What we know:
By secondary structure, the protein is mainly beta. The protein has one helix and seven strands.
Amino acid sequence: FFFWGITGCTSLINSGLASPQTMEIHQIKNQDKIAETIKVEGVVQKIIPLMERKVFEIKDDTSSLWVITDNNVPKIGERISVEGILKYKEIVIEGEQFNEFYLEIGK
């Protein structure tokens, strides 16, 4: 696996040097893990370049998750491990509400 993410204070777990345990994507969408450091593995499905940031979708055998970063993005089809802060956003499009979890890295 190629490791994609940040290293530094946000990687420190319980004042140690260990990274968080890798989770299946469906697990983080069913748990109250917002604002925690999360690690997932999967294959990059889509990439969306934005003005100041970049967004890519990672998919494992259970679900998919968007990742927002200031860093370079991996290639579509690449299997990666990514670590970041879990965020949650309610998005309204044409009156329909969508609830979206995503990881933020590099900020």
